[in-house]
Design the sequence.
């Protein structure tokens, strides 16, 4: 796994503009062909530069060319969906070092299906009754610091979340109705109980543990690390760091629980996950996304992204009273993030106003959601293209200069 020290040393040795021609690490020859029609223009949709991240609201990441090729292959070839599901799951589990895996309709779908699996097992009667949990274990324990909006995917199954902070709280909370222990890895720093301790609690008491690792990729090393911790179930987003289909995700872990999740999902008609259908194109595309991500050299790519962020910072630093800082958020992927701050008594603009002006200019530039950055103006080069780096730096400089 790349350490911060080795990463920075590698970045310093690489001159700007001499690495990969595209932000996604592909060569010009492997880029998708230009569409004959400009569909967005026909629909009167505005375009933008994504200097934020592969948010779902911004359509995720551009897919690997290999993924597009795999999806086009599947489009014209019928498949027995159960057989394809099985084969793809085996291949992904093999690459990820997990006992079993399945492709889901996004990471949030994986959370719902994994929770359902912990409630019902392979019992068809219980599967048919969800979200009515009468007679089932129906409590899921979660740390107070791990609470987040995506826990709604757990509550979809009709369970009650029980909040804890300390090991003593866990001892008091666990009872005969405890169905699952939920862990949010991206928020691990906000909890008082470590991932290793959480897994050990579940293993000792025979209670399944679920880890949400949706935002932990890339690099693929994070998948290997989370699998090795021993969680019974794990989920990842397929359309962000993996650069697979936007609507896809992964559920990995114990074979019996993954099999139960399959029973709670499509194409089973009387199941809570019936609407969480995964197409054959998404199945094959996600498998290839995992293969391609596992083989990709992220050290080189991250070094390039660091240089791009620093180039943007250098342009913004031309404005007096502005400070920039490149940093790496804890508990997530390794993408370098640029924080931009200024003296608001001299540059009469709040971060929220600056974000809005970047949306109103030409070209439109999207930066991080302020709710995720403690109210600071921040960006990454995660999904930028090489020819957008200079534009982003110039647009932000112009916005700040105009308010000086």
Sequence:
């Amino acid at each position: 796994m790349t350490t911060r020290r080795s990463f920075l040393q590698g970045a310093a040795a690489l001159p700007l503009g001499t690495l990969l021609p595209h932000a996604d690490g592909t060569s010009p020859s492997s880029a998708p062909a230009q569409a004959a029609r400009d569909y967005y223009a026909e629909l009167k949709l505005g375009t933008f530069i994504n200097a934020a991240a592969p948010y779902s609201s911004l359509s995720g990441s551009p897919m690997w060319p290999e993924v597009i090729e795999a999806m086009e292959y599947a489009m014209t070839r019928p498949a027995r969906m159960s057989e394809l599901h099985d084969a793809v799951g085996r291949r992904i589990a093999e690459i990820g070092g997990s006992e079993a895996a399945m492709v889901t309709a996004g990471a949030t779908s994986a959370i719902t299906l994994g929770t359902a699996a912990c409630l019902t097992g392979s019992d068809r009667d219980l599967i048919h009754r969800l979200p009515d949990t009468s007679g089932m274990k129906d409590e899921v324990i979660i740390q107070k610091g791990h609470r987040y909006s995506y826990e709604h995917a757990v509550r979809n199954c009709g369970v009650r979340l029980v909040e804890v902070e300390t090991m003593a709280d866990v001892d008091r909370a666990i009872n005969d109705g405890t169905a699952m222990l939920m862990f949010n890895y991206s928020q691990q720093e906000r909890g008082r109980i470590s991932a290793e301790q959480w897994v050990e609690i579940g293993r000792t008491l025979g209670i399944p543990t679920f880890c949400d690792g949706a935002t932990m990729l890339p690099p693929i090393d994070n998948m290997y690390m989370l699998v090795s911790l021993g969680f019974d179930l794990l989920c990842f987003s397929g359309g962000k760091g993996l650069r697979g289909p936007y609507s896809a995700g992964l559920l990995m872990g114990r074979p019996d629980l993954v099999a139960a999740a399959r029973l709670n999902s499509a194409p089973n008609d009387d199941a809570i996950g019936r609407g969480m259908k995964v197409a054959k194109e998404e199945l094959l595309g996600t498998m290839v996304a995992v293969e391609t991500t596992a083989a990709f050299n992220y050290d080189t790519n991250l070094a390039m992204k660091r240089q791009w962020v620093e180039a943007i910072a250098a342009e913004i630093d031309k404005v007096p009273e502005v400070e920039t800082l490149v940093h790496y958020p804890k508990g997530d992927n390794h993408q370098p993030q640029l924080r931009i701050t200024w003296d608001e008594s001299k540059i009469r603009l709040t971060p929220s106003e600056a974000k809005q002006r970047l949306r109103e200019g030409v070209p439109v530039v999207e930066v991080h959601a302020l709710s995720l950055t403690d109210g600071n103006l921040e960006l990454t080069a995660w999904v930028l293209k090489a020819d957008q780096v200079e534009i982003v730096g110039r647009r932000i400089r112009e916005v700040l200069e105009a308010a000086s």
Notes: DSSP finds 15 helices and twelve strands in the chain. Residues 1-31 have pLDDT under 50 and may be disordered. Residues 351 and 377 are 5 Å apart (CA to CA). The two ends are 43 Å apart (CA to CA).
